[in-house]
Amino acid sequence: MGATGSKLEKALGDQFPEGERYFGLENFGNTCYCNSVLQALYFCVPFREQLLDYYSNNKSIGDAEENLLTCLADLFTQISSQKKKTGVIAPKRFVQRLKKQNEIFRSYMHQDAHEFLNFLLNELVDILEKEAHATKSDAESSSPSEKISNGPKTGQANGAQKEPLVTWVHKNFQGLLTNETRCLRCETVTARDETFLDLSLDIEQNSSITSCLKNFSSTETLNAEDKFFCDKCCSLQEAQKRMKIKKPPHILVIHLKRFKYIEQLGRNKKLLYRVVFPLELKLSNTMEDADSEYSLFAVVVHVGSGPNHGHYVSLVKSHNHWLFFDDENVEMIDESVVQTFFGSAQEYSSNTDHGYILFYESIGTGNKS
Amino acid sequence: MKMMNNGYNSSFNSNSVGLMSNTGATTASSSSSTSTTNANSQSQGLKTYFKTPEGRYKLHYEKTHPPGFLPFSHGKSVSQVTLAQLKDKPAQAGPTPSSSSSTSASSGVRFAAAKFLGVGGGNGVRAIGFAGGNGTGKAVNGTSRSGSLAGSNGSHSILNPNYDGKGTYLIFNVGDTIFIGDLNSPDKDPIKSLHFSNSNPVCHAFDPEAKDGHDLLIGLNSGDVYSVSLRQQLQDVGKKLVGAQHYNKEGSVNNSRCTSIAWIPKSEGAFVVAHADGNLYVYEKSKDASVDTSFPVIKDQTQFSVAHARSSKSNPIARWHICQGSINNVAFSTDGVYLATVGRDGYLRVFDYLKEQLICGGKSYYGALLCCTWSGDGKYILTGGEDDLVTVWSMEDRKVVAWGEGHNSWVSGVAFDSYWSSPTSDDTEENVVYRFGSVGQDTQLLLWDLSMDEIVVPLRRCPPGGSPTFSTGSQSAHWDSVAPLGTLQPAPCIRDVPKLSPVVAHRVHTEPLSGLLFTQESILTACREGHVKIWMRPSSETQSSNSEALVGSSTLAGTRVGSSTLK
């Protein structure tokens, strides 16, 4: 390990700022799903900074009980406060807490990285909301305009009782979809908004993320068995339905549905499809005026040909350089290496390293956050 | 990612680029084209033809590397294709412009006649037409040559050393090897392979007008560059380059990957090599390659700069620092005046080559640009890239004038079809219709018709808070002015650019595509793994009536609409 560490340090040279740390994470038996996502989140700079901020602001308020949020903050603090630039850290407390919290992750079985990310983000939101409620009942006389809950010290729950709390986790990851249904009889459009923390996209062979996003927003006709109950017509009607992104998130997390249930097989199958993802992306199917532009900063990669085994690694962009994280190993890679994780154009291939979760950060002018 | 087609076009010059009107497929609709959505099922068999308004294109020949060839000894690389036409051996007298022009024209006829005889009379009408126009009797030589080659079954050891090599060849790289196939032979296997032991060949270019025999350029992954005589390679029995000039040895000048290589039109043996680090070098093949040049350190990586070699003897003679990140493709306008580059940073840049000045350019919608090409008349540039769009740039307006929507993945190759003429011709110069094609990583070939008359310019959207009508009728800001000279335009907003829909979308390979090019008889498509398909054009009256007019004066790499500007 020491050799790899110094090699990386040499490669890093002086191209990286003083404060940045690149640490591998020890694997505790099939915890690569967790390590790969943690690296992606660590290098999601606004998320990391707000987590560390929150943590430092909250530490003073007595020793609150341990939860996933404090464990994650502990881990990130531990990484960022290392003296050395590179090395290995054991995310022991975090993994223990995770297993305690959720029995799915307790076994040594292979886990799904997307499920873990989803669980983690929702858990963080829950913890923040609970804390905000607790403080709110403590001090009702807070400014109603402040919508962010950045810990009990700085942020406060907003005044409106019904409106859901917008935590800093929401501020980073939450976007708003609108589900438009147009009744083909009376032409009435029913719009229903729903929030999301990530987008799960169906994939096709030899397609691009752009194309998958387009399909996600494409118009679907509801008919036959699947008619729509129109409130105006008071009956089931044929309708057209489409999903539009109403408010794009600051951090766009795209999950590729590579694990598909195949009815004939009676089990999940991994789709090895080649799905190309650009390093820059725009969402053109939004309802906002300007097209918001995103830049890719992390990719969680699934390695293996089947859904029930395999390995997870991650690619991360930090200060305009790409790094490869494989549990405790960290390497610098050329940007062009990212292309080797697109998938394979053939049904059977020796290439089984596929981009699975993509993390894009908004850089565009269109984003107002 | 692209192909070079200057070799072919020079002999099959066409003065007939769409001076005609068309029913037109240009719409401003932003909805995705339904004709292209369902083409991706892997199990679905590939059709051996596709229909267009002008008729059926049929799969004619396929070319690929020999079975059992293991292409990945130096890692993967993307196959590209160059077409090369070899004429008769150069005449003893020095070629004057007039004689060179007639040579190329007659060899064009001979080539075409040989082709049709080889097919076996399948195109009777056209073959007769050519025989009448030719009348030299040399066509028979061409046919027997290609026949004997096919008979040799691709075995290199029995190539005739006196073999004069005239014909049209397909040059493509796979792994560590350059393969050369005979375009007019039904044989799938190449007739020649050139093996590179140190690095993969990744790009190549052919100059049919080369004076001293060195007509083929090969750029390597290591940054090394070779110039050779194609004829000499064909005559040799070995698997190594013979008589090669070696430039940038072991990457001594620049050790980043070659990405694109091009002869400079009308320059007497000068060429440019683009690299993955954003630099482009100018070489002159007459100069000694062994004298290496060192160039000053680039002060500002973000700025365009040109540095000339200090010694007049050295090669390369100049370095252009163009952008940060890779230059992915370069293309010269037919007259050699302008150089277009596209790269990782998503910008198209157009330079006045001789003045070494940036003229104009602009950003993709998003992501890197992968390929670019000029219209024969120099009025339009096509680019394709990671935004899945085919972008049409106007040199006159110095900005994007249309976006082609229809690919489901990155666009890896674009080309104008200079041989195509609109079936509904009215011969007015005002209403020019351009036909172009694009190929993508979605394995599809798309054909497009561009008629500037029929482009619908989107209306300016109402300002926020204004009345929700479009009645003002003013065009969006993107259209208000011509971009100033020497500036790069930001990415336009999706709503501001007119959209084109493809005339045809056809899934041509099972692998992502890397390039396409048009010849008088066919469309060539190539995939990244090194399979090439040749699609014969529909045999229609319109085309055969045009074909005699096509054999005439020669320009390099494409054609001019309207008056010819031959020098």
TrEMBL record, chain A:
**Region of interest called Disordered, as start-end residue ranges on this chain:** 135-161
Describe the location of the USP domain by residue ranges.
Answer: 23-363
EC no.?
Answer: 3.4.19.12
User: Sorted alphabetically, which InterPro entries does this protein's record hold?
Assistant: Papain-like_cys_pep_sf (IPR038765), Peptidase_C19 (IPR050164), Peptidase_C19_UCH (IPR001394), USP (IPR028889), USP_CS (IPR018200)
| Record keywords, A-Z | Hydrolase, Protease
Per UniProt, the ranges with Polar residues bias are 140-159
Gene3D superfamilies per record = Cysteine proteinases
**In its keyword annotation, does this UniProt entry include Protease?**
yes
Instruction: Spell out where the chain crosses the membrane.
Output: none
Substrates-to-products reaction catalysed: Thiol-dependent hydrolysis of ester, thioester, amide, peptide and isopeptide bonds formed by the C-terminal Gly of ubiquitin (a 76-residue protein attached to proteins as an intracellular targeting signal)
Q: Belongs to which family?
A: Belongs to the peptidase C19 family.
Question: What name does the UniProt record give this protein?
Answer: ubiquitinyl hydrolase 1
UniProtKB/TrEMBL annotation, chain B:
This protein's source sits in the domain of life called: Eukaryota
Please provide an example of a Pfam family that matches this protein in its UniProt record.
Answer: WD40
* PROSITE patterns associated with the record: WD_REPEATS_2
Disordered: annotated segments: 23-47, 543-567
WD repeats located where?
A: 362-403
Here the segments flagged for biased composition (Low complexity) are 23-45
**Gene3D superfamilies given in the database record:** YVTN repeat-like/Quinoprotein amine dehydrogenase (2.130.10.10)
Please tell me whether the keyword ATP-binding is annotated for this protein: no
Q: Does the keyword NADP apply?
A: no
Keywords recorded for this protein, A-Z: Repeat, WD repeat
InterPro entries noted in UniProt: WD40/YVTN_repeat-like_dom_sf, WD40_repeat_dom_sf, WD40_rpt, WD_repeat_creC_regulators
Quote the SUPFAM superfamilies the UniProt record gives. WD40 repeat-like
PANTHER family, A to Z: AT02583P, WD REPEAT PROTEIN
Q: What is this protein called?
A: Dystrophia myotonica WD repeat-containing protein-like
Q: Please give the organism.
A: Citrullus colocynthis
